[in-house]
Design brief:
single chain; 319 residues; alpha/beta; Rossmann fold; 8 strands
């Protein structure tokens, strides 16, 4: 009885931890490379302005330097795109605005290096801390159910604050950020011309179960999902079964590019492909396998993922 009691207590504690981590993951502090970038933005070919939305959401606005200076990453992506014959705007010229949505356990500064590349390709980039992440005052995240309006608010408020046109605009999200981006793009009168989703899921509950089952078996995977889901619902008022991207994806009408690592053990590639398959048949769409990439290195392999993203946005996010 003592052993069973200890086992039950341990399992309950594990469920509590898992549900808490889903709703309120440990906040990632600023890293040394974040500080280096922000202290030397000109060396990266950009200028960066920090600001907050009316609801308190912390944000960054990134623009290429008007004199055309580029950082190392900016030079590389322009060389890659040029080698593919992509028609690039002159360095330093802005042709549109992209909103970038970070993943779970991330923060807006994690996308500074992504922004450097996309600014070099001709875009202005807007970054925001999602709820329960970075310096955002909110305590829980619902993977797009309640955050779908943040990207459009970011675009609108930044446009007014920094005096740039709010069109054309595109949207990019990874993992949790991909779910937020899909929900944002499916809103009525959404302002987006194109969408990029990297390593995201169709349904969160099944992605969690598959992830856990691959480690401890199907029975414990189902038990884990149920226990963590109960704690998550207690903290957020949202059931895990409600968190799905396939339903809003089925309503999209803008061009969508999806990429996923073939060795992803956090969100299995099958979950991403099911999300892709939920897109309407008439929607312009493209799927990219990132060879041998796991969830955490999908953006840092030898595969030219940034050139693929920039090419998609240049094709669709234009005056």
């Amino acid at each position: 009885m003592i052993i069973l009691g200890l086992a039950a207590a341990a399992l309950g504690g594990a469920f509590g931890w898992a549900g808490h981590e889903l709703s309120s993951p440990a906040r990632r502090p600023l890293q040394d490379y974040h500080h280096e970038f922000l202290a030397n933005t000109a060396e990266h070919g950009v200028r960066v302005e920090s600001f907050r939305l009316k609801d308190g959401t912390p944000c960054l606005m990134m623009e290429p330097l008007p004199d055309g200076r580029l950082g190392r990453r900016g030079r590389v992506i322009r060389e890659q795109l040029g080698a593919e014959g992509v028609d690039l705007p002159p360095a330093g010229q802005v042709t549109g605005t992209l909103v970038l949505v970070h993943g779970r356990k991330g923060r807006k500064e994690d996308y500074l290096l992504i922004g450097e590349r996309l600014c070099a390709a001709g875009f202005r980039c807007l970054l925001a801390d999602m709820p329960a992440h970075g310096e955002h005052p909110a305590k829980v995240i619902t993977f797009g159910l309640r955050e779908a309006g943040i990207p459009a608010s970011l675009l609108s408020e930044a446009s007014a604050r920094f005096h740039f046109p709010d069109q054309p605009a595109g949207l990019l999200g990874m993992s949790m950020g991909g779910a937020v981006a899909v929900h944002a793009a499916a809103q009525e009168r959404a302002p987006w011309k194109a969408l990029v989703v990297i390593s995201s899921f169709d349904r969160l509950d099944s992605a969690i179960q598959n992830n856990v089952a691959s480690r401890v078996g199907d029975t414990l995977g189902k038990l884990w999902r149920a226990g963590a889901g109960w704690v998550y619902q207690m903290r957020t008022g949202v059931r895990l079964e409600q968190i799905c991207s396939d339903a809003p994806a089925s309503r999209l009408s803008i061009p969508v590019l999806m990429a996923h690592g073939t060795a992803d053990r956090v969100i299995p590639i099958g979950s991403g492909k099911r999300l892709f398959q939920s897109l309407p048949l008439m929607t312009e769409k493209e799927w990219i396998d990132v060879p041998d990439a796991d969830h955490h290195n999908v953006l840092i392999t030898d595969f030219p993922i940034y050139a693929s993203v920039a090419r998609w946005m240049l094709r669709h996010v234009k005056p």
